[in-house]
Please model this.
Amino acid sequence: MEKRRKRRSAEDVEKSIWEAATTLIQKDGFSCLTATGIMQEAEIEPVQFYRRYKDLDAFIDEYVKKFDYWFSDVIKVADLGKNGQEYYENILCNLFNSLWDNKIMQELLRWEIATDNEISHRTAQLRELHTLPLCKKFANLFSDSDTDIVAISALIVGGVYYMTLHDRLSEFSGINLGKEPDKERILKAIKHLSSLLFHDQSKSSVISIAIAMKRDSVSSEKISEYTGLPLQIVEEL
Model:
C-alpha cells in the first residue's frame, strides 16, 4: 500500500515549490526546469502545482520577479563614497561580488541569453530601465570630457557578466574566479580602470577651466599656477 504523503498547509506547499525550483535551477539552470521535476522535488501532487500556476511559464514568470530589482539593490547597497570615483568603483565592485555570490541570478542571465520569449524580454528590459538613471548621472558628470563613460561602463559590466558566467567552463585569460587571489585581481583592475577614467575626466575639467581663464585674459603664468598645468600646455591652449 502506497504511503500517504503528510498533509501540508497551503503556505508550506508554496514554500516547497519555490525551494524545489531553486534547488533544480542551481543544479541544472532554467532551461532544464520542468513542472514534473518541481513536483517530484517538492513531493507534491500535480493538482497542488496547477492550482497555483497555469503552467511552467507562469511559474517561471513569478519566480524571476524576485530578481526584477537585483541591479537596483546592487546600486542601493553600494557605498556613496567621498566622490564620484569612489561611488563608481563601489557600484562595479559590488556588482561583481553580488553576481558571483548569486548563483540563481547567474542562471537567469544564462537563460535570458539563450531564450527569446516574453519573460526573458521583460526581465532584461526591466534591468536596463533600472540602469538608465545611473547612466544619466555619470554621463552628466563626464559631460565636459571626451570620455564616453556610459559606453565604457557597458563594456566593463559586460565583461563582469561574461567572466562570471564563463568561469564554470574554464579559466579566462588564465584567471580563475574560483580562486580568491584572482577575484581580488578583478576587483583591483576595476578600481584601476576607475582611477584612469576619473583622472582623464578631472584633467579635462581642468583644461576647460584653463581655456575659460585664457579667454578672460588671465596670464598663462597665473593659469599654470592656479590649475597646476605645465606652462607649455597652457600656452598651447
Observations:
- The mean pLDDT is 86.
- Residues 79 and 90 are 6 Å apart (CA to CA).
- The longest helix spans residues 180-215.
